[in-house]
Design brief:
4 domains, alpha+beta, elongated, Elongation Factor Tu (Ef-tu), domain 3, OB fold (Dihydrolipoamide Acetyltransferase, E2P), 6-stranded mixed beta sheet
């Protein structure tokens, strides 16, 4: 039999191991008991999920006016480039740049002296030709009876007749040259052919005007003014589809009323009508140009101004509209919460259209008679029981 004797160090080591084991067992027991107790308490205190109180509206269809909004740009209905028709020195500008002018009002004056000299020369040439024609006429009158008596030959009569006709033609040519000279003189006074607003003067006083720098300014008519906007191919196709489905009824004869919104959001007091539609799409932008003509008697609208054009006159029969707060937007688009037959929340994707005051037009996704949650839908999940407040 073997006998083992332990020293003091070994005894202390074994006691230390025993103490650690006992402490670990005690600690794990203490931790385990509270955890179990806590879990038990959590399960016991978990509240039951009850119905969520919401407010809802019943979907009804009604006829609504349809309005379509576009970004538009104004254009003068008649803009004229004022150009010099003769070459010469520009004497002076006699209009105020940017001012309104009437048709026939003088804008520029050119130096008239050279053209007056041409008129004088042409008038003198005409007088000379008239004198020559008178001489030829008298000679013909003397020759004709003498030739009838055979006192002069037929050749003499032919020469007298030719001389008179030639001098008569020279008179007509001199008249034409005088008329041309007078026209050139009149072109020295440059007037506006239309009533409108003037542009800046492109040439200064004293400049020699010729074919290369003949444009002097512009005059643009302000009333009526054109309003141009474009519709994309996709928008045109949507309009056609809605009309085919009877979801949109255009005005009789397609005569839309055009209302203009200014930059501050206020409506322009005069409304217009569509007067032109492009015969084809723009190949660069894929858009279809439409033009409306609008009265602008006070000149509030100016050419190249950006405005918004509202097309009115169409009707949406049986349209569905909801308060804005009833329509929510997620990652897949707009949606609403519908109260189903069991009184629970149903997730319903919808297609939202334009605004009508504080309401939102819903073009697809809802049927008449369904109830849609308006307030209280932010925390809903599919299948949540609902209590609809009256």
């Amino acid at each position: 039999m073997r006998m083992f004797f332990c020293g003091p160090a070994a005894v202390r080591s074994r006691l230390s191991v025993a103490r650690r084991f006992a402490f670990a067992s005690l600690a794990s027991g203490c931790l385990l008991v509270p955890a179990l107790t806590s879990c038990a308490k959590h399960d016991e205190n978990k509240p039951d999920t009850g119905p969520v109180t919401v407010t809802a509206v019943t979907v009804t269809g009604r006829d609504l006016p349809a309005t379509f909004e576009f970004v538009a740009q104004t254009q003068s209905s008649h803009q004229v480039n004022i150009q010099a028709r003769v070459s010469g020195f520009l004497d002076r500008r006699v209009y105020t740049e940017g001012a309104m002018v009437k048709a026939g009002q003088v804008l520029f004056l050119m130096d008239k002296k050279p053209f007056q000299a041409q008129v004088n020369g042409a008038a003198a040439a005409l007088a000379r030709q008239k004198a020559a024609m008178e001489t030829a006429r008298l000679n013909l009158e003397r020759t004709r009876p003498l030739a009838a008596l055979n006192a002069l030959s037929k050749k003499d009569l032919d020469d007298a007749t030719g001389s008179f006709e030639s001098s008569a033609a020279a008179v007509e040519q001199a008249k034409s040259e005088l008329e041309t000279a007078r026209l050139n003189l009149s072109y020295c006074t440059i007037t506006s052919p239309i009533s409108g607003i003037t542009g800046a003067a492109m040439q200064q006083d004293g400049t020699y005007i010729n074919q290369q720098n003949s444009q002097l300014t512009t005059v643009a008519v302000l009333s009526p003014i054109w309003v141009n906007f474009s519709i994309s191919e996709n928008e045109m196709q949507r309009f056609r589809d809605q009309i085919a489905r009877k979801a949109l009824i255009p005005p009789a004869g397609g005569k839309f009323e055009v209302e203009i919104l200014l930059v501050d959001g206020n409506a322009f007091p005069h409304k217009g009508q569509i007067t032109f539609a492009a015969p084809s799409y723009n190949p660069q932008t894929g858009t279809f140009l439409i033009r409306a003509s609008v009265d602008n008697p006070k000149g509030i609208l100016r050419p190249n101004q950006y405005v918004r054009a509202l097309l009115k006159g169409a009707v949406r029969p049986g349209a569905v509209v909801l308060p804005q707060r009833a329509v929510q937007q997620g990652g897949k688009g707009h949606y609403v919460w519908v109260v189903d037959k069991a009184g629970k929340a149903e997730y319903r994707p919808v297609t939202a259209g334009e605004w009508h005051g504080n309401d939102w037009l819903i073009t697809d996704g809802l049927r008449a008679g369904e109830r849609v949650v308006v307030d209280g839908g932010l925390t809903l999940q599919p299948g949540t029981p609902l209590t609809v407040k009256r």
